[in-house]
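ZP: hey, is the fe (ii) ion complex queued? I don't see it on the tracker
AM: it wasn't, my bad. submitting now with these inputs:
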Amino acid sequence: MVTTAVPRDREKVAERLLLASARHSYDPVTAIDWDAPLLPGVPAAPLERTSLYGTELWKTLTPDQQATLSCHEFASIASVGLWFEIILMQALLRYAYDQNPYRPHTQYALTEIGDETRHSIMFARAADKLTGGVRYRPTKLVHQLGRVFKSTAAGPSMFASVLVAEETLDRMQREIMNDETVQPLSRMVSRIHVTEEARHVRYAREAVSRQMPRLSKKELAWHRSLTAVTSWFVVDNIIDPAVYSSVGLDPQYAASVARDNPHHRENRIWMAEKVTAFLTEAGVIAGPSRAIWRQASLIA
Ligand SMILES: [Fe+2]
Ligand SMILES: [Fe+2]
């Protein structure tokens, strides 16, 4: 079923977003104290969000190792997040190329690109600091698929895939920013990102709601499948198996334990809960492509 939500005027939405951007934007280079030392033995996120939490393998780790793994997983999520932000920036630039630059809707697309350039630098610095310079990234295949996506994606599947990346990350970061027991660095990074992403989510949701009812049957099937597959690749890649080396575990073995961990599966569904509810209402998650979302552990 295609959305019943009435799309608001896109220029009015953009005007409000531009105003909010002018009032509440951060420059992470100066807003974060990059010289402050990390707190020893403190995780970057609540421990129960760690991919191995609750497994036998988790119990073999000391509290210090558990905190270290949490910092490396946060760094991996930030690194893969910034990889997707670079994809998004290119897709948004291609989108803006065809729009009227005098319109608030286009000007907001350009503003969002500005936000994302700052986020990517912030994520890179935070990941570098949390890991002592270990670089995490998606697999080579996914890196190449991202190259195709960033050069061709358009329409509702472009905005819907962006929403999945933004809203899953957002769910986790809202929890981190409110948790006083985690690293101040990951809290501040999360707080900045949550503030600015709320506007990006609003913009992309409006685009999805507006564009979906215009699709033909054939286009609908294409955009549904492409969103499902892209979302699977993105969420599947947020934890680089190399993170497990940080606590002396075999990356392939630990990744397989995480894959089979029911707690981790629940975390994925929890992270995707809000965005999958929206995409179901908007008609993006429907028909045969639902099976892909289930297979990806993004819906129950
Ligand atoms: Fe961002
Ligand atoms: Fe964003």
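AM: back. Residues 1-7 have pLDDT under 50 and may be disordered.
ZP: great, adding it to the tracker
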